[in-house]
Amino acid sequence: xxxxELVAAVVRQWRQLPVAPARLxxxxxxxxxxCVLLHVLAGLREALGFELTAIHVSHxxxxxxxxxxQSCARLCExxxxxxxxxxxxxxxxHPGGLExxxxxxxxxxxxxxxxxxxxxxxxxRDDQAETVLFRALRGAGVRGAGGMRVFDARSGGAGIxxxxxxxxxxDLQAYAxxxxxxxxxxxxxxxxxxxxxxxxxxxxxxxxxxxxGAAAALARTGRLCAEAADLxxxxxxxxxxxxxxxxxxxxxxxxxxxxxxxRLRNVMRRALExxxxxxxxxxxxxxAERQLRRGTAAAGWxxxxxxxxxxxxxxxxxxEPAELPAxxxxxxxxxxxxxxxxxxLVSLVPAVGQGIAAAALTGVxxxxxxxxxxxxxxxxxxxxxxxxxxxxxxxxxxxxYRPLLPLLWVDGRLAWVAGVGVAAEFRCPPGxxxxxxxxxxxx
Length: 443
Fold this sequence. Notes:
By secondary structure, the chain is of the alpha+beta class. Helix content is 38%, strand content 20%. The protein contains 13 helices and 21 strands. The strands form five sheets. It has a six-stranded mixed sheet, sandwiched between helices. Strand 8 and strand 9 form a beta hairpin. Helix 1 crosses helix 2 (32-48), helix 5 packs across helix 8 and helix 5 packs across helix 9 (214-242).
């Protein structure tokens, strides 16, 4: 493909975007691929009517990589493209490994302060073939084998555009030669200890010798798998909607149990994806699906799957962050309108004829505590005192939230429990000043 055809291919991809963006932001590593991308887009910005900027992410993992930003700056100055550098710190304890941690940090930095700009990346057909093969070897299924997308709206912000994804790298090399472009070489790209490098430098060339066109075929397989994955997502969305649509992200447990195992796992994957969870492997997901079907799950079940947990209580199931807030120590409450508590805020809002009688909170010792067990509360003046355990069950508070609930004690007497209500002896009479207590926490 001559350089003019590469430009024409980018224009075709531009016309297929859902909406023509006003601003493009190129992720500029300084390597051949991203330098060609920036050069092509710089030549098209006037004709297509978009603003163009470039951003370089420096993670400091490669010795001498600080000089790459200077090379990027020179290219941007030559093309009259505004340029910025982002310094990032890469997590060494990332569950996906160092490569995944660097990729996550890079994407987060590229998305910072984007102001609605569409992020443009230089992935090409050879990258796609490598990605599809890598994920297929890991048993990633159709979602993983779908590889990258030319336009990915799921990545947050304005999305990601990869206009070179159907072009082989040799076409980018020809373009760079024709336009006398300079670029930097990342030495880590030649390190065969990394699985993706091994596939790109050793395995794929061998396959191409035996079966010419293998890279194009792998890329096509990725595209077909992506279509299948989209259909599975559509099915999962229909199933989730049939489960009640998810009030506060919750779905019908009974409706989930009516689905065949593969279909329920498909729904669980979709719910985890919506929540932004790292996807568990097949064995963990199958185990989660098995446990979700147990007859005892409705009494309260919570299974941590990496960053998130799958939960069931009564006829609801949902996804939530794996880490629960710590239960705070007891603390005195004077006249603050809000107090931080277990990841939320306890508030007292003035009212008339509602909540706790204001007079009952004057000149007394007020204290917020967590549960210690054995508490009792009388909700009706003519009713008995009842165990807080039973009241929380009636209020449908899941067991793992109960220790987090704030309890307001007034001179040693229990006056209010979040999610349950006000003790009868503290209730505000009609027309009298009162305060309405509330908690914005998880439960």
